[in-house]
Amino acid sequence: MSIYLAAVVIYLILMLLIGVYFAKNSVKNSDDFMVAGRSLPLFVVMGTLLATFVGSGTVVGGASFIYQYGPFAAIFNLSGGIVGAIILYFIAGKIRQVEIYTVPELLERRFGKGALYISSIIIIFAFIGITAYQFTGGAYVLQLTTGIPLEIGAIIICALVIFLTVSGGLFSVAYTDALSAVLIILGFIIGLPFALNAVGGFEGLAVSLPEVNKSWNGGLTFPQLIGYFLPLFLLVLGDQNMYQRFSAAKDPDVARKSTIGFIVGCIFVISLTIMLATTSIVLFPEIAPDTAILSLAIDGVPMVIGLLILCAAVAFIITTATSYLLSASGNIIRDLIQRSSKNEFSESKLLWLNRIIVVVLGVLAYVLGQFFPSVLAIQMYSYTMYGASLTPAILATVMWKGATKAGVLSSMIVGGFATMLWEIGLDRPLGWNSVLFALPLSVLTLIIVSLLTKNKNASADHNQTGQYNL
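RESULT FIELD:
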């Protein structure tokens, strides 16, 4: 265990040094901090897109789903991210041309400050949740390698994430992401033959899997499967982090091409994760589902390969957390503080405000993480809070000229309240994820209210659409 711990610690130190380097040499103003001076090359944008997508949501939450429900149900679940990435390809270049910092800025340009404020609050709630389960995922790594209790491990990961975020901003996040993306793919590819050999190859795996895990649905109903597919699809399609990565690319062509590498990387990582976590079902039938990949790295493959997988996994977890902390901080600074203040802020003050808010949000994320039973549970809540509330509004802004201010505002509010009602107030009736309740209400509200208010707002909306249409 000491060797695994040493490897993880060394890699974390390397990440922190990268953060210090960029803090001293690259981050001079808030533009550098938030969008890396809009200068990232193709390979780095590809890597940071992939690392933002993977993180604890795949290595821990996705692996947990695979372990519980089997590989075929997992294909349906995790493919939501791939489908969303394909759609992103067609709008990535246009988003780079707009040069936004946050998604609420995009909504404000067409629907006004009300859309900006409401969407900012929703994003902050969702992104704190996503950050929270990164802390839990990192804590699992520390528990498996050192025996540290999950609560203490989450505090350690929280502190590391906050330091990395406040030091180098998106510069340090993006470059450590790119390195981690290479490591995780290499580790998974090299480790797969060893894991398969341990279970007797694909034939032995098929024989040894429990019957429920061999079924197409893993014992879930079709609505439950849809409930797992939609949150990831909606998050990737409307994720502010993805839009910020496109804005950080050095030009629209790089932004568009990066999505191709992102799609290919997603297919690789998801396929490898499914196969590796499936072998854990046979090799480790009594482990906690959240640890399916991590346990395999420690006990199911040669030590060198396990070290590679562990280091890349914890790096993905940490850089994903830094991405969402950084993004939520940007919402508070640009969309709430700057827009509501009559005073001008100097670049140095904006930079320090960003860093202070990152610390506050990191602590809140840790606290929130203590209230959810598993990574998968908080993952579905956070994805739905974002996807059901914001993605319909974002797509309407880009694609539907008939959407009105009243329709978009009411859609976001209904989506957010419906998510909290289903998850917290009703405690997930029928075992369905809240997206099955919140998304239809959000979309119907958008359509119905927009149609009812279309004549009243047609002239203003038409003029704004012509000016800001992506």
